[in-house]
Amino acid sequence: MQTKNTPPKYFVCSLANQAVRKMLAYYNRALEPMGLTTQQVMSLGVLWQEEGLSLGVFATRAGMGKAAAVTMIKRLELMELVTKRTDPLDARLNVLTLTDKARKLAPKLLALGAQLEQSIEAAVGKEDMASLIKGLSVIRDLDL
Predict the structure, then answer these.
(1) What is the SS3 assignment for 92?
(2) What is the edge-to-edge ordering of all strands in the sheet holding 82-87?
(3) Residue 117: inside a domain
(4) Least CB-packed of 5, 103, 111, 134 within 10 Å?
(5) Looking at residue 57, which CATH number applies to its domain?
(6) Distance (Å) of CA 135 to CA 2, 21, 41, 45, 74
(7) Measured in Å, how far apart are the chain's first and last C-alpha atoms?
């Protein structure tokens, strides 16, 4: 007995993958001369939003597992972009803080993100950009 398979209507995963690859390539071209990767900058972005996070909270907000977060923070420490110290209120926790070197990078790196968003918005229009952001946020929060 043969069953008829229904193909995806939109091929969302393929389209999203292609779009993400294009955006990551944009960032990687811009970041390579600075010796940074997209993942490192995204990790710094979590701390630009709020410093003093524990490693566990950082991992959750960065969307990575604890082991990956430990590896990322070690790399950022070696690059002198992040410091890790014992939480004075709970010695079991380490809190993460940006260094002055990381704070000085923020304007340039945030401008890269703004430039990409402006390019996308110019291509799709403000209304579709708002719909895109809303849709991506919903997909991100789905329990799949």
Answers:
(1) strand
(2) 53-54, 90-98, 82-87
(3) no
(4) 5
(5) 1.10.10.10
(6) 36, 18, 24, 22, 34
(7) 30
| CA torsion angle 57 63 66 69 (round to 10) | -90
pLDDT tens figures, 90-103: 888 889 999 999 99
Kindly indicate the confidence band of residue 2, based on its pLDDT and cuts at 50, 70 and 90: low
* Mean pLDDT of all residues belonging to the chain: 93
In angstroms, what CA-CA distances link 8 with 14, 34, 91, 99, 121? Answer: 10, 41, 51, 47, 27
> Which two tokens mark 31?
């970041």
Residue 121 has pLDDT above 60, yes or no: yes
Total domains present in the chain: 1
- The two structure tokens encoding residue 26: 């944009």
- DSSP string covering 18-58: HHHHHHHHHHHHHHGGGT--HHHHHHHHHHHH-SSEEHHHH
Domain enclosing residue 99, as ranges: 30-107
C-alpha–C-alpha distance, residues 98 and 32, integer Å: 21
In angstroms, rounded to a whole number, what is the distance separating the alpha carbons of residues 61 and 46?
7
